[in-house]
Amino acid sequence: MSIATLPQGDWIRGISVKQPYAACILAGAKTVENRSARWRTGWVLLHASKTVDQPALRTPLIGRTIRGRELAMGSVLGIARITDCHQDPEGSPPCSEWAHPSAWHLVLADVQELPLPVPARGQVVPWKPTPDLMVQVFQQLPDFRP
Q1: Can you tell me the distance from the alpha carbon of 75 to that of 63, in angstroms, rounded to the nearest whole number?
Q2: Is 135 strand, coil or helix?
Q3: Tell me, what DSSP letter sits at residue 36?
Q4: Nearby residues of 120 by Cβ (< 8 Å), 6 or more positions away
Q5: What confidence score (pLDDT) does residue 1 get?
């Protein structure tokens, strides 16, 4: 797919996620990402930050999920679609075993892993990918249609 066939405008953002959580999302196990503020729905580039949450590596749920997976960092590793952003009502059970109380839960779907990581800088907040980054990412996903 050429960049010319992708939609124009502000249709995709980047989301930076610490490892090993990015690997859990790409494995299809982690369908909820926790954030401190509301995010809009839509497509995002999944970026693994340059930071590893070391204590998380000792969590059995995470250990089982990432077994055998490489923890690439500082790169876009895939794409996903945020289909919902919500907070669980106070006193209710969490919407997912990955959901943190009082966080905003980004519900992720249509996750597609890239064959090769694309080095990129990310940000904690939603960030706009450069046209060059978009070309590099979508060259690896020729059948992608937003």
Answers
A1: 21
A2: helix
A3: S
A4: 14, 45, 47, 74, 75, 76, 129, 133
A5: 45
Q: Please report where in the chains the tokens 């706009």 appear, as a residue.
A: 128
How much is the pLDDT for 4? 52
- Rounded to two decimals, the pTM is 0.92
Residues 6+ apart with CB under 8 A from 32: 95, 96, 98, 99, 105, 106, 107, 108
What is the distance between the alpha carbons of residues 46 and 113, in angstroms, rounded to a whole number?
Answer: 9
Q: Tell me how crowded residue 63 is: count the other CB atoms within 10 A of its CB.
A: 12
E strand residue ranges, the chain: 12-19, 32-35, 42-52, 75-86, 104-119
Q: Of all residues in the chain, what percent are helix, strand and coil, respectively (each to 5)?
A: 20, 35, 45
* Residue pair 83/109 in contact by the 8 Å Cβ criterion: yes
Helices (H) and strands (E) in the chain, counts: 3, 5
| pLDDT digit string, tens, across residues 98-122 | 999 999 999 999 999 999 999 999 9
